[in-house]
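User: Can you fold this complex?
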Amino acid sequence: MNLNNFILYGILPILSLSTIFVFIRFLKGPSIVDRVVSIDLMVIIGIGAIAVYSILTDQPTFLDIAMVVALIGFLSTVAFSYYLEKRNRND
Amino acid sequence: MINILIAFCIGIGAIAILLASIGLLRMPDLYLRLSVTTKAATLGVGLILAGGALYFQDVGVTSRALAIIFFITLTAPVSAQLIGRVAYLIKVKMWKHTITDELAGRYDSESHALESDLKPDEVELPQR
Amino acid sequence: MMKKRFLLNVMLTLVWAALTGSFTYVNLSFGFIISFFVLWIISRDSPDRRYFTIAFKIIGFFFYFLYEMLKANLQVAYEVMTSNLHMKPGFVKMELEAQTDLEITLLASLISLTPGTLVIDVSDDRKVMYIHGMYLEDRAKFIQSIKAGLEKPLLNIMR
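Assistant: Here's the predicted assembly.
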């Protein structure tokens, strides 16, 4: 059992299963803040999947995309929290 | 030999991410979800990126992986704190078994300023 | 004095890498360790030796924090997998001993990275921090564990 098979049949199914769980919370979430948290976690799972995929295809260039995704995910969380606070204050 | 180490790192990381998502699904209110998911997911992604750095063994790739790990470890607590604060401000419901809430009534409802509400003798005698 | 020592250390590391001719991570960190010990031996009689004690303190604190984080992660993992009816969450107030912005930021990040605790906000006059905790059987014990486990070693390094 080499590394590629382990990643293909062991790791990627675990990551997709956790994405499904997060998506169920995204659909169910009672408040909007739950949805922001689940988007945040989905971005982090995406970074992990990109890193695993770069090992699988032997292409280290994919890690650049992981870095950009990490930056954008943090920015979107900050923007969402700022917007929610301002919206609540003005009405 | 190095393959076993890489497989160990990636496997533990993936299991940590799975635990984070199960926690997000099962925990009863937002604050508990937030305090379970952020840390476990940070640990999982850090371990997966460390496995990637071990696999390539190249200076550029290792520094890129270290930069991503550093950035995620730096920003995950900040975003968790921002979201928790906003959730408290817009009054997201708490779990019914929550035992204490010492933050109640401390926020100014107009300006969102937070007072510390220490009595003068409490300032004089901090807990040792 | 600390900055001067650190820059000297980096310069000696680069000299080592240039002399051995390979710029890999292993060689650079090996050169850093060697030049650290060389500087230590050279400045044994100098009165200001903070740079050498603080390095060991930072390394010790790093591994201590890693161990604590793994332990708390296992606890939370157990909590997630089993039925979660015996948690006692709540918001508590903790008085701060950290003063400056950097200390408060580092302390809040460390508290938030330990599973089971989450910093909600710091008051505007920087005297009190509000923490959301998962296991609040005993409030005084909870605050005491944070103060002794995280704040005191951090302030020990920063000051």
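The radius of gyration of chain C is 21 Å. Residues 2-48 of chain C form one domain.
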